[in-house]
Structure formats: structure tokens, C-alpha cells
């Protein structure tokens, strides 16, 4: 209930009768939108008690409101604010009258944004996304069960009252094991932080490194939200080509020779958007450059967990980099759950400073959720899920590759990625993708397409074809619809 | 399993026998910490297949490792890396040898930190905290039940695959209703953002407003993490006194006359740390100042939901402020759950820019969790919880007030707060609180105490006595222990 005692101030010595003061106060509360059409006024007995008035005074005030059509008596429910008052248009609440207009009365610092808003459109039943996991495989029941089991423990309260900016200690310990077992990372818990996802890790690391005007090397093209983050922090982006073997490390070295470089951002596995993996040879060379120039690197390895060759290449972070590589990853994509949990790996003192900054942005994560994830890493649930999903996605990659080659081979070319959840389709330049997207939407398919892949670089004509979330039948349907759509262009 | 195929490179034309190459490569992997003491090497058959070797070669390599004591054969499990090698000390993993030393090889941007680390100590069974809810009252079962029910819906997948920086739309709509019903806020969903808690709201708002050198007015004392956030963003803090009626608004106006003020940060209900509430008179005056000087304000109302007088005063944000008041709050404290969900209210275009910035920091929240909270707001679960908790906490405030007055009245003075979860105890300056904290710790009580309350201002001698998490018996025990502790000083 609204604090009517504060809202309805009565001047007992005033010239206006008290019932009218009450009625008029209600009218302005309704006019101002504090009491909304369809809401009920408090019962007359209750209001009389709150305002220390005789009940008859309140009844008189309500009668006055009803006679003016501000309220309507509803049997057994009381006085309802009328919904059809000409004075009360819903837009009024958002319009000039009310406290929050469209524009803030003060000026804001700029935030870089993508030039083209993502083309949303109506989401069809069948969706070729940008490279997301299949939530039908997500260990959802295990997840809820783990949370339930935690709150039934006698010590459950400690998961509810505490949060630390570095994350749950148990999860940090399990993360160390997990990264050691899967990637050969040689770290201790003090090198880790549990974040809200890879994006927060990138932001934190970049905010600790970048000052206005600093040079940051990124790929061309590059993951656009990383670009925007660096620009937001004042960086000057220097772009080097990304080809089939990943980022051009010779070009990186040329830049290091010419300028003081503050940071290199690299996606070593399944680059976003192009899906290429940095070759072993370039890795060795890049490690040399990193050591030689003491080059700080953010290695974004958001997609490492899904690899389809027998021998994935370990990340740069697992090799000899002299402490220069800040390693960033996520469980969000690996698990296909809604939870957003990522991590960051760096030297101990870096992590301490990152924790101080993260505390100001966010205090810390959800301790219960982090504990649940730690238990699922420990008891092997996550490992089993990854193994299972890996197998399914590898099959889907192969199926998608076959279908795309057979049915769309005349219009698209691609390299099957070594891992990850998407195929980067280079589309015949004569074919207008935006028109294709509209065409297939009419046939029940949402085809993910974004101009943003070319943020800051020369636009190309490609589709990031996420195959992981579609089973064999759905992949067949999707490719067939695209084939038909091309025919209609 | 580690990617042995990448890690163990064999030179088939080399001078060393292949089994020795394999063994030596394992030794360096163990030395480098990539394979840890107690870990198992892959079965010989599996490794042979991975490396395309004869199995006998692998067996010979493993025998060599065993004869050098690097590994120990364990019946039915295979080859375990020895745990007692003199060459392998656990610290080696963290020490100079390994990739991540203590210090990053590059320089970092500074992050302001609190001068005194929080005195942690061993947590005793009985804890007087800083003002946290009682998790024993938290709607935990309802919460898990709601999440379970969501994932059993046919459309569950949409909660798992999407996230937006402004938050779940259903929760935004329910938030509008909730804030209108409880605080008379007159807003539309476009004025809202769902954040990770009040701290993130403060950070986002401040980052959009503050440029290096800008003047920001804060209370003296003030919530220290807000101070640090503004300083992190380059602000110059101007402090005005906080007395029993809240922040000194005349002092605010004096500053506005003299300087261009970028931002005022105010906690209008149950100020942190002093628990005072801004008086109605000062509110009116402050609103005038806000309109007159077009003063941007962050109103941090983290604790509004718990008020113990019949008529809580509505926030500044509910009054006529010309769109200048950015309103910040949280469900984390209200619910006593581990989930960290807060909100921010501001003009529509401000929120759009805030969303662009939040995307770079965090992409967005946990959509499933936000949907669950929306449902719990809609079905009244949250409302019922707040009503129940309010009643319990009001009783506890009164009990705590009585006990403190009767048993500690000679040593402490305080004003019973109108709401919130803590009493601000002014302690006799002759009494050394740090010594008292140590004394009562020996008697099984953790007494929250922090030097940080005086960050940036003249140190005082006070304890923030959180009463909400303790029932009558526990409050009695806590106060008795403090009484005894004082006797022993």
C-alpha cells in the first residue's frame, strides 16, 4: 500500500472541508500517476485510521471522487480508480508531465555503439543462430538438483550471505583442476577470478590496462563487443588481418616494432566471427613476440571446450609467455544454461587489482550458484556433459558441412571449423544476404545475420551458420529452406 | 585428458630412441606442472593410438619413467605420477618457473582501495553483522520451486539462450508495478534496468556521468564503495555532513552555488553507515535544489523495503525532480537470497546508454533467474515475504534497542532507526572497539566492525549493529557477551 499518511497531508485549520482536502489530494495522486487506473483505494476504515479521521469523512471524500467519476465503486472490492478518464492517458506517465521524460536533463559520457542495430524481426520456429549450444542437452535437472541439495544442507546460510569479488573459493579450486586437466594450464587458485562471463573478464582486464590513446591490436574482423569495450576505455584500435591460420602474427610484430602496443586481443580457437584456429606455427611465433616485446595479451578462449580433432592445441596461456597472457573463458556456452559464469586467469597481483575493480562494478557473484557449479565440476557432471555435447556437435558439424556443400555449394564456400558451434559461410557477393534473410523468414526460418561482424573493417558477405543447436532433421530443414530462398531471389 | 598428441611431439628421424623421447617429454610435462603429482597417465593402448606408436614403445617409455621414480604403477588404475618427488614442490607451480608469477610483467591502471583491509578473523557461531537479512526467513524453497517450474515449461529454452543488457522484460514490467505500489514511483518499463545489484547500478550511472576531475557531493560519512567507485572514475569528492536528519542540504546548496557539481549521491532511507533517514523537510528543500541547479542525483535506496513506522516517506525519485534523480535499489537484501539482482530507474535515453555500457561490462543477467523473480513478484510471493520479514525485523529492532539500552546504556548511545537492519551505536571514546571485538571473539561472538565507515572522513568510534539476522534469544546472547567483554577491557 502507498504511504498515504505521508502523501495525504491535511490542514486541519484550512478553509477547505477536510473531506474535500482528502478528495482533492487523491485527485492529484491519480493525475500524477501515483495511483493508477484500475487500482483500488484503501478501505475507508483503514484510511480513516491511518489519517486519524472519522470514517464518515473518508466516506464523504470517496463519494466526492465517485461523483466526479475519478473512482468507481466495485461490489465487495471497494473503490477502483476509473480506467476511462479522459484526463488519464497511459502516455502521460511517460510524457512531459511525469518525473522521467525521455531525455535526461544532464549530459552523458559517450558509449560507443554498433552502427547497425541487430536485425531482430519475428523469431521463427526454426532458428539458425550465431553459434549457441543446444539447450536441450544442457544439464538443467542436475543443476536444479544441485542447488536444491545445497539449500538443504545445515550450512546453507553461508552460500546466501557472502560474496567475494574473486568468486567462490571452491569453484576457484575446481577451475584450477579443470583447466589443468583440459588445457594443461599451470596455475594456482590465486591466479583465478570467477566472473559473470567472458565479457566481464575482457572488460576488467582491459580497464586495468588501457588508458586513453593507448594502442590495442585486434583482428580484422574481430569480436565486436571486444572492439567496443576497448574503444569505450579510450583505446586506439590497430587492426591486423585474420586469415585461415588465424591472426597474422608477422603483422603483429611489425606493429610492435613501430609503436608502443598496450595490448593484443586474440581468439586462438574458433575465432569470432571467422571460426579459424590459430595454427601451431603462428602460436610459437606469437609466443616469441609476446616474450620479446613483453606484450600484454587477452586470450579469449570462449569456445575451447568444443573441439573436434583428436588433438586440440593448448592455449597460449598454457605455454611459456612470461606471465603476459591474460586468459579468459566461460561456462555459459559450455553448459547451455542461463547462468552467466566466466573466468579470468592472470598473475596473482593482477588478479588482486582486478578484484578491487570488480567489487566496485558488481561486488561479487551468486555464491550459491558458484558452489553448485563447483560441485558439478568435482563430481564429473560437467565433464560428462562436455564429452556428450562434444560428440553431438561434432556430428552436427559434419552433417551441416555435407548439407551445405551438397545443397548450397554453388553459392557458399567455407572451411569446416576444428571446433566451436558455427561455420563461417562466405556467400557469393551477387547474393544479397539481407534479402535472403527476409525470404527465408517467410518460410519459417530465422537466419542469423549481422552487419556487426565487419565492425571497423571492410564489409564482406558472410553468414555465421550456428549448427550446434540444430539436430539432423532441423539442419536438413534449414538448409532446404535456404536453398529455396536463394531460388526465389 | 590433456591433448597429448600436441604435447608429445616425436622426431622419428631423431637420434634418441622413440620410447625415450616419449619418457623425456613426460618428464618435462611433470616438471612444468602440466601433469601433476597424483595424476594418472593415459593407458598405454590409448596413448599408443593417439601418438600412432606401437603399444610396446609406450610401455617401454612408462617403464623408463617408473625406473626413474617419476611414476608409480597402481594396480587396476595405471601409472600415477609420484607424489613424493624431491624435484616437485607444490610451490614450484606458483613460483618463478611457471608462467604466472606474482607480478604481472606490465603496469596496471590504479584502482582505489580501502586503506584498512576488513578485519576478517575466524567467524564465530554467533555473528553481529553489518545489517544483513536473516536468511532463515528467505523464500528459498519458493525460489527453487519457481526455477524448477520454469524449466519444465515447453518454452523453457527461451530463458536459457537469451540475455539483454536491460534485463528480462517481464521482470521490468513487474518492477514497475512493485515500485509504483510500494513507493509511488511513476515510471514505465523503458525507465528501468535490471542489474546485478545496487553496486552495479551505482557504477553504471556514475560511469555515464563522471569525467576526470568532476566534483561529486557525498555524505560524511558515506557508503565507502560508492566513494571508491566515484574516485575510480576520476571524481573529486566534496563531503557534506550527515546528521540525525540526513545529509545537510544547505551545505549541498552552498557547494552548488560555488562550483559546477556533476553529481550528488544520497541515501535517503537508513543511510549507510549511520542509519539516519532524510527528513521530509530536507527532502522538500533538496528537491528545490535539484530543480534549481539541474543537479544529477544518484538516490541509493537499497534498504527501503524495511521500514517500521506507519508512514514511510516516499523516495526523492517519486517526487517532482525534473528527471534528475537516478534511482537505485536491490532485491538482494530484501530477499536474503544469494541472487544478486538490483535495478536502476532513470530517463529513457539514459537507460539506453546505460544498457550499451552494461553490455560491454556483462552482456546481461541470468534470464531464467530474472523470470523466476518476475513470477514471484506477480504471484505475491515477494510481497508476502516482505510483509513477514518487516514484522519480524521491527520486533527485533525494538528488542535490540531495549537490550542495548538496558545492558550497554552506559557505554553506547544510539537513535533507533526508522527502518533497515542495523543500529548505529556511538561507543564511548574511552572504549577501544578493536579490543572489544577481540575480547568477544574469545567468547564466541563475531562483532562486525570496520574502520571503513570513516573512509575519507574524520574517524569516529561506532559499531553498525546488525540486528535483523538474530532472533530474540541470539540478540540476548550477543548483548550479554558484549557486556561481559566490556567488563574485561
Automatic annotation (TrEMBL), chains A, B:
Gene3D superfamilies: Type I PLP-dependent aspartate aminotransferase-like (Major domain), Winged helix-like DNA-binding domain superfamily/Winged helix DNA-binding domain. Residues 16-84 form the HTH gntR-type domain. Keywords: Aminotransferase, DNA-binding, Pyridoxal phosphate, Transcription, Transcription regulation, Transferase. It comes from the Bacteria. One of its GO terms (molecular function) is transaminase activity. CDD domains: AAT_like (cd00609), WHTH_GntR (cd07377). Signal peptide: none annotated. Pfam families: Aminotran_1_2 (PF00155), GntR (PF00392). InterPro entries: Aminotransferase_I/II_large, HTH_trans_reg/aminotransferase, PyrdxlP-dep_Trfase, PyrdxlP-dep_Trfase_major, Tscrpt_reg_HTH_GntR, WH-like_DNA-bd_sf, WH_DNA-bd_sf. In the C-terminal section; belongs to the class-I pyridoxal-phosphate-dependent aminotransferase family. This is GntR family transcriptional regulator / MocR family aminotransferase. The lineage of its organism: Bacteria, Pseudomonadati, Bacteroidota, Chitinophagia, Chitinophagales.
